[in-house]
Design goal:
Blueprint: E1 2-10, H1 12-20, H2 25-35, E2 39-45, E3 53-59, H3 62-74, E4 78-86, H4 89-102, H5 109-114
Antiparallel strand pairs: 1-3, 1-4, 2-3
Length: about 120
Amino acid sequence: MHKYVVLGKTSKEFSSSMVSKPQNRKEIVAPFVESLGGNLLEMLYLNHPEISAVAILEGPNDEAVASMTGIIKASGMFDDLNWYRAFDSGELKQIYEVASTKMTEYVSARSFVEND
């Protein structure tokens, strides 16, 4: 499973719905995420003008997370919603280990011009 961060800006309709009937959205959304093969690890709300909701989840692949966020966007509860693949420190180390071994194979545009 891969890790993902979802950042969103909730809509006025979301606030209106929450005022009308307060609810624990993590409890409600978790089964939906699980139905697409994922696991909702955390859901947080921020007092920021551009990002008011953050979710941390595990998902089987990018396509599943894109499907999740597409469905959630279509609900009208978010004015903006984006997802990002996230890497823990061990995964990032592995990425840079590969980069380190391949560094000498890359030819930048500058060195291509200088060697011509």
